[in-house]
Amino acid sequence: MMKRIVYLAFYLLISGYYPADPASTWVVMQGSSLTVNGSTNVNKFQCDIIDYNLPDTITCVKQSKSQTLPMSGKLKLDIESFDCHNRMMTSDLRKTLKYKEFPKLIIKFISINSYPNFKNPAKITGVVDISLAGIVKRYDISYLFTVDNSSIVHLKGDRAVTFTDFNLSPPSKLGGVIKAKDELLVEFKLNLKPVS
Hints:
single chain, mainly beta, Lipocalin, two-stranded antiparallel ribbon, 2 helices, 13 strands, disordered N terminus
């Protein structure tokens, strides 16, 4: 009997079998938000989706044989919820993003280059797919994970994108006299409750 156990252990070792990697899963909580910062040839603008609280979950594997740790989960944000704090700008942005045809902005989490160190927070890099106006683009993104005294995880991420990445033309007004610049800085802040 003992020989069988030893043979089985040896077989599993040389066959490359490993138990399932532990993972952390978090639920997106109330108070999460997404902000888009941009500028025109005249001034700057900021558009927000505040209090995003759909019960999405994000999972991150803590260990992996590869150099990256797989993640899963996605955010599905309503384009119509964007508020640019200016009715005309809000309307222009929604139309530019083709919100009637493609009503959702989707951020899908793919991987992260290291597991967050909550005791000594530092920026780490992840990979996401951003789906907008029918186009999907993959980006590296900068993350900062922190945790508060209530064990709530706060995830901040940011990435510069462009309208033209998604085959969109920056909005303009007054015959092109006022025109938005191509680049946007997308920032999201998520409040996450650990479930495992």
